[in-house]
Every structure is written in C-alpha cells, then in structure tokens.
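Chains adopt folds. We examine one example:
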Amino acid sequence: MPNRINIRQSGQSDYQTIYESMVRYTRERDENSPDEIWCLQHPPVFTLGLAGKEEHILAAGDIPIIRTDRGGQVTYHGPGQMVVYLLLDLQRKGLTIKRYVALLEQALIDMCAFLGIKAIRKAGAPGVYVSGKKIAALGIRVKRGCSYHGLALNVDMDLAPFRYINPCGFPGLEVTQLKAQGCLLDINATFTTLLPYLLKQLGFAEYEQTQDVGLSNPVQTSQAA
C-alpha cells in the first residue's frame, strides 16, 4: 500500500550487517513490497560513499572504515547518533531523487523548529545545519527506482571522531548535535519526535511498528499524525 509504511527500531547494530540487509531488501523487493523505515545506532565506524576519497580520512585510529554504495564522501557513525534508513519505492511515490532529498531535509528542519532550533539546508551540500555547523547528514542510493540508506542526526554523542575526517568531504566543517543546542532528548524520544514530520513529508498516512529491525512481522498498527 503506497500510503502505509513499516517502522522498525533497534538499539546498536553492526553497520555491515545492516548495510547488507538494506541491499538484500532492495534487491528482493517487488512492486508490492512495503516501504520501511529503520531507526538504530551504530558502534563507531567511518563510512565512505561511492565517490569517497580516502584522503578525507585524516586519522582513523582504531575506528573501522567501511566503503559503501551511498552517495557522498566520508562520515562518522557512533553511539548517540540516530541513524534512520529509509527503504522506499520512489517510483511508486512519484518522487525524483532531488525532491526526495529535499523532503528529508525539510522533515529535519521542521522537527528542529518544533524543538526551538533554527536549522537550514545549504545548496550543494545535502544535510541540515545549525549556525553553520552540520547536525544531520544525508546519503542515499537508488536502484530500480527504490532508495535505501538515509539520514544520520547527531543527538548526544562523542563528536571527537568528526575531527579525524573532513566531514562529507568539506575540510574544516564543524558539526553539532541536539544536546549542544539545549535539547536533551534520547534517541527514542528524538525518533518519536521526527517520525510524524517524516511521514507527513513523504505522504504516508499509516504505519506499523516493531522494536526490532531484525523482525519480519511488525506488531503494532498506528495512524500517522
């Protein structure tokens, strides 16, 4: 159903495992497969996009580096960062990639506004920014009209590893997080706050929710706000 989506939540999950699951879901889905949103956190990891240049990794130390097939350069994932993967049939929703990215950015901007934080987008630099600092990164991949990967929002995390890279390929780019903006929500509360804005922007009227990304049968039916 084009106006219904599955929501799956988990705690910390291995990046490579989740990445392979997204690829497999996208490869095996058909025109009747449900769209899904996965919310989780990752242990510390640097990821490089398709065109990612290793020169943007300045000092990885003991943090693993994984090359992936999303767009963009290098970013960092770690505990305290909310990662939201969106597995959507963009063709079924009638969305271009450019429009899809704009909708994700708008959902984040609207959520920040609700929290009293003024966030903006920047032309040519996908993501969301607060006072010139990046608070959320976007990276997607589209195959056969279907998207995977998604967004990462810094909530309450150790930001130091961002200093070991040129975030998203921009030397000197500073990052921030909700905690630094006076917002003390945890990951679950942040996702609960963001979800209605995502559903509204993407045009979903209903969703089914489970607490585990690994489960195949969502258990709770809810109405979108």
The domain at 4-223 is CATH 3.30.930.10 (BirA Bifunctional Protein; domain 2). The radius of gyration is 16 Å. Residues 215-225 have pLDDT under 50 and may be disordered. The CA atoms of residues 87 and 148 lie 5 Å apart.
